[in-house]
Amino acid sequence: MSDNMFIQKGSPFGRVPTTERDSEKTSGEDVINFFKSLIGNKIDSQSQPNIEAIRVNLVEDPEIKTPKIKTPKAVQQIGDLERGLASLPEAIPTKVDLDTVVARPTKKQIADAMREEEQEVKEYNLSGPDYPKTDEKKILSTGDETSRYYNNPSELYEGIKNNDDRIYNYIYQGISKKEWKGQDPIFDFVGYSKGLDSSAFGPAQIVYSTAEPLLKNIKNKETKNFAKKMIAAQKLFKNMYDNRKKRGKYLPEKASNTPKATGYLKDLGITREQFLDYVKEGYFLPSNHSLSKARRKKGLVTGIPLELLGDNYKENYFNLFKTVLKQKEKESKTKSLENVIQRYHGANDKTKDESYQKDVFKNLNILTKQTGGRIESDPYKRQPRFI
């Protein structure tokens, strides 16, 4: 007799029980009776134990109310495991489109980016050519912090003359806050605007026409090398900026193919092909370009690739800022902080330069009034604290 008869579902051994109690009463007996019919109802004392063995090895399935063969414990555990695994939801791997992570912008994306620039240019300070920006709340470690207060702008002016790094850092932050209109200053290029003609870069928005003549004044070799690279990058940026204004596109191929561009690329230590690749990745573009903004949202660097500027780019930029501010102090006609800040702005427009200076003074927590050609602090205003 085939073993399959014992594992088939349903009730092939008699009537199907109609109630739970009937099932409990008849399920085993039906099987016993079935065996009895096979042997002609002749059951002697020797065959009785076999019937009892059959009775013991039959267990009821609570769902279908029919008997099944009792299997060894190990086999039951394997079956339970298989059923458990089968009941688990299928693990479907998430589809990852790697192109969305590393893909370069399409022509349509670049065109959309250029349309967005002019719409968002108001977010940036673009009123003058000599714009510096800042990097972080604390850009440099300039020695122990101090809780002293500056009594008046003349003290800040004296700090510039005496090369006091704490004073330079304090003014640096005040200027940077003005340049970026309260936004976090970053090492990036000026935003694009039809009415602007600038190569400004970095927290202090220094332009190459200001930085280049001062290279001879920089004694530190690392800072001088940094300045050369920054200036070279600014000139390539300016070429693309001019193309955008004249032709509606940045045209990096054209910007890097001028008679002087070879020298700029040499100063940066890259080939023309590398420069073009950098532009496709979002470097050397205005800070209000959508590709630049997309990089910043991902926490990526914009402006000039850091591998070109070096590990100490923040310190070197600050050193360059000090050189620029020191030069403006030497050029100051009234020998005052007011005049230094106005000359730093460099718009050659008295109204704009004065407005710029007043905003910087507000960032420095200085409210001043003019008294006999001398700037004095407002005695009722708390003096600025160095942070």
Describe this structure as you would to a colleague:
With 387 residues, the protein is mainly alpha-helical. It folds into two domains: 85 residues, no CATH class; 273 residues, no CATH class. The protein is 50% helix and 4% strand. It has 17 helices and four strands. The strands form two sheets. It has a two-stranded antiparallel ribbon with strand order 1-2. A two-stranded antiparallel ribbon has the order 3-4. Strand 1 and strand 2 form a beta hairpin.
Radius of gyration: 41 Å
* Apparent shape: elongated
Mean pLDDT: 74
Q: How large a portion of the residues is in β-strands, by DSSP E?
A: under 5%
Count the E strands: 4
Query: What is the first-to-last residue Cα distance?
Result: 96 Å
Oligomer: single chain
- Give the structural class: mainly alpha
Number of domains: 2
DSSP helix fraction: 40-55%
The run of helices and strands is HHEEHHHHHHHHHHHHHHHEE
| Strands in their spatial order, largest beta sheet | 1-2
- Main beta sheet: 2 strands, antiparallel
Poorly predicted ranges:
2-21, 93-102, 120-149, 369-387
The number of helical segments is: 17
Sum up the structure in keywords.
387 residues; mainly alpha; two-stranded antiparallel ribbon; 17 helices; 4 strands; 50% helix; 4% strand; disordered N terminus
Task: Summarize the SSE layout with pairings.
Layout: H1 20-38, H2 48-56, E1 58-60, E2 67-69, H3 73-87, H4 99-102, H5 107-120, H6 153-161, H7 165-179, H8 208-211, H9 221-247, H10 252-255, H11 261-268, H12 272-281, H13 290-297, H14 306-309, H15 313-331, H16 337-345, H17 350-363, E3 368-371, E4 374-377
Antiparallel strand pairs: 1-2, 3-4
Helix pairs in contact: 7-15, 7-17, 9-11, 9-15, 15-16, 16-17
